[in-house]
Structure formats: structure tokens, C-alpha cells
Amino acid sequence: MDNWIKKQATLAGSRTAITDGKQSLTFAQLAKRSDQLANKLNDLSALNNQRVAILTNNSVAGYLIAMAVLNSGHTIIWLNRRLSATELNYQLADSQVDVCLYEDRLNVSELKCRTISFSEVNFASEKALPKHLEFDLETAASVMYTSGTTGRPKGVIQTFGNHFNSAMASALNLGVTSADEWICTVPIFHISGFSIMMRGLIYGMTVRLVSNFDEEEIHQILVKEPITMISVVPYMLKKLLAIKQKTGDTYNEKFRGMLLGGGPIDQETLQQCEKMQLPVVQSYGMTETCSQIVALSFSDAQRHIGSSGKPLFLTQLRLDEKTSEIQLKTPALSPGYLGQPEKYATKITVDGWFKTGDVGRLDAEGFLYVDGRSDDMIISGGENIFPDEVQAAYAQCPFVSDIAVVGVADDKWQQKPVAFVIPNEQTLLAKDLSDYGRQRLAHYKVPKNFYLINEFPHNASGKLQRFKLREMLDKNEVNELQ
């Protein structure tokens, strides 16, 4: 397949490829700049290894460096800037890279490999590389490390074919074309952000890059600029919804909707979106599938609030008959974990389906509802309880600003659900929370104990680390509400 960067330069050279509101490049300029930067990297001997690590914020500079690496025929090892030096060094060693390209303002003093700043690249001379005219669909375009909530992170290999098939399936579902402009405020070192970059190349679509999520800034962009799509996670959606309710502003006339991923959301929030005629499409996907592989369509969104939708055109999906685990086949699926084929093999069934580790159910029309991770499921007295469902029931509770539910051992019931809460009221009583839950949940799903906490432990990807909450309980580091 033609090199996507060069192809769009010939097909849509004058169209804007990337902008941050201040700096913009057309596809023709992107192709030229990518060639120049690749030659500069070559002059710095930064391309001797097939894999090149990148540590960056959401910036045009980081975007361009990533495009230069792809344009030169090399594989990006995406590093999460929120990780500790120890975590980053593990990934650098595991991926066997010898160079890390980094945004100048980031601290790389403790990294155990050669580091080259973006400014060093810009000031380098050019040493011509052979033109890389094709993207091999079976070649690794990128590697991203899993969040590592239950063990050492695994490097997920993502081929050009994986990215292409993900983009095609998404376009068929959402009707995205080159006329769209997709705002990227999610990190580009996560699949949610990088997939927007890759879709921009494949569709010939403008990507509007934002350095970080600030709800006031994003709101103004959605009102004033010709944005058509935005990817959000639940907390982003809630923040944007609150501002929209407060101001009464209408987004620009070209705006079509929000693609929601990154975890469960409560029904009340989705119903508020529906009342405000704010199109929200829920989706389901993972790093191993290069973003969403299940999603609602805009036409189905109102009738199936709470569902992640149906498998996209290129995705096959089934539920395990005994465990209800979600299993799938898709050409967007990663071919494996870097250097760990045995771990990837454990994720594949004997008949070739990928085991996601998530538990779900299908309604009569085939729409998927994701209950949660099988690792998080609580079995209490023979009943299955999913923390996400319990937390969603408390999402609008006036007594707490946030809640997290875990399962702990229990002599009578085998396990029981308990909750950690960040309170809104100083005089909060456990009975208030228990009564609130019993009005909305089956009695066995209501947490049996409530513990006060100031903030929740999250990993660098922002995912809740429930095992750390259990450790706090074991060490008596939290106070129980009476």
C-alpha cells in the first residue's frame, strides 16, 4: 500500500492535515517536513534500530516526529510521559531501543538509553534516506504498552494493517470523511489519540491537536471552530456537559458528535446528553484492537442508551457460553505482544478467538452491554456483582463526589462488595449510602462497608488500581464510615 503521508500529499496536498490553533500544516507540507525530519534523524544515527522510542506531549512537534519515524519505515515505541523513570526504563529495555526522541521540556535525565531532544533534531543536518514509498500492512507501525494494573506491562504490536482496518471500520460506522475535523485532546501516546492521527492520514482529514484537556478551552473550540468529532472518556464528557448546561452555548453547526470510550458511564449522564440533543456514541475497544471494534451508530444511540453498540463491520464477536467473556476476531487485532508470544497465546482460544477478559451480554437485537472486567467481578453468595454497575448506581449520589467498589473476602458469602468514597458532606453516615444504594440496586449488590479516602490510586493511564485499595484495607490505612 502507498505510504499514507505521501499519498495524501498527492491527493489532498492543500488540505490541512494538522493544526493546534496556532500552527497548521497541509498534507503537502507534512510530507515535505516528514522527509526533512527523517533525514535529520538519519544524520543523527537515530534510525539504526528498527524501533524508535518517542516521549512527548500532545504537540505539533511530537506529531511531526512521529510522522517522520513512520515515513522512514521505522516503528514507534510510544512512551507514556506520566510514567516513572523506572517504568520507562523497563519499557525501553523490553523493546530493545537504543534511542528515545523527546520533547524538550520533559525530563529524561534518568532514562537508560541515548536521548535526543526535538530541538536537536531540528538543528541537525540532513543525510538523505531512500524514499519509503510503501507501508507494508504486516509491518509494525507502533508498539504501546498495556497499563500493567495486574503485572508487568506488555508491549502491544500494532501493524499498519491493524490501524488501517480500525480506521475503515470506524469510518463505516460513523460516516467520517475527509470533510471532517477531529479534535484530539486524548494523549497521542495512547491508542485513543494515536488512532485519531492515523485516521487523519487514511481519511485525509484534519486533526485539531490540543495539548491537554481543559474543559473551558475545549468548549470554546467546539463552539467557535468547525470541529465535527471529538473522542472523550467519561470524565471529559461530564465536564463538557456541565459547561454546556451552564452556558447554554450551541456547538458549531458542523459538529456531529462525541465518540465515548475509556470505561463505563452512568445512564443519567447519557440521558442528560439526549435531552440536550448532544450526540454521543458509546464504544468498546482496547489497545490490542487499535481502538474501538464495537460502537453504536448515531441512529441507534438514543434507542440503546448504555450499550456499547454492535460489532463494527470487520469485527466478529461472541460470548463464552459459561463465563460470558467477550471474545472476538478482527483484522484490527494485534498479532502479538512484543517478545512475549507465550503470554499472547494464552489469550487465544483453541478455535482462534481473542479472549478480552471483559464480561458482557447481548440484548435481543444483538447490542453489546459490557458488565466489567472478569478480574474485578465479585462473587457473593453465588451472585455475580460488577463494581462498575455499583459505581454507576452511585454516580448521581449527592453525598459523595466519587466512589470505587472492590470485593473482599467474607466468611459467610465468600466475597462481599465494599466501597471507598470521597465525601461531599462531613457528616456522612454509612446508613445514608446504604439506603441510597438499596433504592437503586439489588440488596446483595449494595456495599456492606464504606471507607473514607481522599483520592483514588490510579496508574499512569488513569485506570483505577483496585488492588491498592485492598492493600489499604489490609494495612488499616482507611477509616470506616459508621
From TrEMBL:
InterPro entries registered for this protein in UniProt: AMP-bd_C, AMP-bd_C_sf, AMP-binding_CS, AMP-dep_synth/lig_dom, ANL_N_sf, MenE
Record Pfam families: AMP-binding, AMP-binding_C
Highest taxon above the source species: Bacteria
Keyword Cytoplasm carried by entry: no
Catalytic activity: 2-succinylbenzoate + ATP + CoA = 2-succinylbenzoyl-CoA + AMP + diphosphate
UniProt keyword list: ATP-binding, Ligase, Menaquinone biosynthesis, Nucleotide-binding
E.C. number(s) listed in UniProt: 6.2.1.26
Pathway linked to the protein: Quinol/quinone metabolism; 1,4-dihydroxy-2-naphthoate biosynthesis; 1,4-dihydroxy-2-naphthoate from chorismate: step 5/7; Quinol/quinone metabolism; menaquinone biosynthesis
A single MF term (Gene Ontology): ATP binding
A GO BP entry: menaquinone biosynthetic process
Domain AMP-dependent synthetase/ligase span(s) in chain numbering: 6-337
AMP-binding enzyme C-terminal domain residues: 389-463
Keyword Cell membrane carried by entry: no
Recorded family membership: Belongs to the ATP-dependent AMP-binding enzyme family. MenE subfamily.
Function, as annotated: Converts 2-succinylbenzoate (OSB) to 2-succinylbenzoyl-CoA (OSB-CoA).
NCBIfam families recorded: menE, PRK03640.1
This protein's name: 2-succinylbenzoate--CoA ligase
Underlying gene: menE
